[in-house]
Amino acid sequence: MSTSEESATDKVKNLPSEIQDTYYKVSKAIAQATSAIDNLIGFYNSTVNSIQKDSNYYSVNLYILGPDKKWAVLKAGTSDEAKSAIQHGHKLAVDGQSMVSRAINMRSVCMAMIKPENSPIPYPSVELPPVHSELCVPLISLQKDVIGVLDVQSTEYETFDEDECVMYMTVADHIVSMLDNKNLL
Questions:
Q1: What pLDDT is attached to residue 71?
Q2: Distance of CA 143 to the CA centre of its chain
Q3: What angle do CA 41, 184, 4 make, to 5 degrees?
Q4: CA distance 124 to 120
Q5: Structural domain tally of the chain?
Q6: What pTM did the predictor assign?
């Protein structure tokens, strides 16, 4: 077992059993998607769909930094609005004010309970249900570079707790590890 897998196991073993079950299901699905990977977009879509399948979240999105590191480009998402935004080339400025930008710049998890009247619309000119909770977890490579963000959105208030943050941090580590093992970083 590698060091990153040992630390993932250590992180997850103290979580409630329901969250552990979700983590193991998602990790298994990510591993299966990686073994059958034929393109990055397929892997990204399998990853967000695996997370969505085991949750009740409005949208699970994956942003990857562009080559110039100035933009976080939406590569996969589970909601119809995210899929439409992908078709329109949606991206967020790394130096912007979005939750995704904050997670990149802070190099740490950003969580918000958003009030509808204060919510920036993450996908311009797309009708969205109100997002009341958002969790953004940076994807940090083994070389310590931020390569993207796992963005989980909910229409419910106070959706995420500390245990779920730990789980999604571990899922993000797993995503990076799978990409690194396939030499895709």
A1: 97
A2: 19
A3: 110
A4: 9
A5: 1
A6: 0.78
